[in-house]
Amino acid sequence: MSLFFMLSFSVTFLQNTVFAPVLRIQPNPHVAAEAEKILSSSLEKIETFWLKENEQFLLGNTQPSMADLSLVCEIMQLEVLDEEDRNRILGPHKKVQQWIEDTKLATRPHFEEIHRLLFEVKANLQEQRLLGANTETESGL
């Protein structure tokens, strides 16, 4: 199974956790759990095989390749998760987190420009979560 295919499970996970409630469709917790397992396995593979010891980019490259950019962009989709879920998935993978940061730094300001819409969606979802939490608190739930 290719690494890109395995990381595509981030979309499946997001569809069944973040976007299903927003779109008012029934999430499938079993599919979300399976997607999270595959996603975690993919992140582990990146960390243990593709990111060489003390190197910034895949396979020891000194600058990001198309593979770095493609994979980091796929993982960036996890930004729309709430903080707890994002930390649960990415938290154990410190090398992956550093690699994402290194890729951001090496490609700025273009990285931020390309991901502007993603960051806007993240902010909107966070606002909706806060409004939902406040509504539940006010109604005594």
TrEMBL record:
<dbReference type="InterPro" id="IPR043377">
    <property type="entry name" value="GSTT1/2/3"/>
</dbReference>
<dbReference type="InterPro" id="IPR010987">
    <property type="entry name" value="Glutathione-S-Trfase_C-like"/>
</dbReference>
<dbReference type="InterPro" id="IPR036282">
    <property type="entry name" value="Glutathione-S-Trfase_C_sf"/>
</dbReference>
<keyword id="KW-0732">Signal</keyword>
<feature type="signal peptide">
    <location>
        <begin position="1"/>
        <end position="19"/>
    </location>
</feature>
<feature type="domain" description="GST C-terminal">
    <location>
        <begin position="1"/>
        <end position="141"/>
    </location>
</feature>
<protein>
    <recommendedName>
        <fullName>GST C-terminal domain-containing protein</fullName>
    </recommendedName>
</protein>
